[in-house]
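Hypothesis: this fold can be encoded by more than one sequence.
Test: take the structure tokens below, design a sequence, compare later.
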């Protein structure tokens, strides 16, 4: 069962915000807005300390992004926070399984 946080930062909203530590909610909102613009991204997962009660203000966001085809993910924007992004092309199967099991799926692109 995912951790739920009673406190929520006013302003941003996204799916499963209550499962993201309040320190990280604005950062996740900002990163999601940017990543969702990329048509090659099919799923976005958040994992690591950002979804636990031991998260600190300077804890980096840890994201896993699934790309629909064999393309590289390039982040062409500056973010004022630390983050790590793994993709389905640079992650081993054991790590993927752990992210699917323990991570938080924030976004799934609907395929037509």
């Amino acid at each position: 069962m995912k951790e739920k946080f009673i406190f929520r930062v006013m302003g941003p909203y996204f799916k499963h915000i209550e499962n993201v530590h309040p320190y990280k909610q604005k950062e996740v909102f900002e990163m999601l807005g940017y990543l969702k613009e990329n048509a090659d991204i099919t799923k976005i997962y958040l994992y690591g300390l950002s979804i636990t009660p031991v998260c600190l203000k300077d804890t980096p966001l840890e994201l896993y992004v699934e790309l629909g085809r064999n393309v590289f993910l390039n982040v062409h924007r500056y973010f004022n926070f630390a983050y790590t992004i793994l993709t389905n092309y640079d992650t081993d199967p054991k790590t993927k399984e752990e992210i699917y099991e323990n991570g938080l799926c924030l976004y799934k692109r609907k395929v037509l």
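The first helix runs from residue 25 to 35. DSSP finds two helices and four strands in the chain.
Hypothesis status: open.
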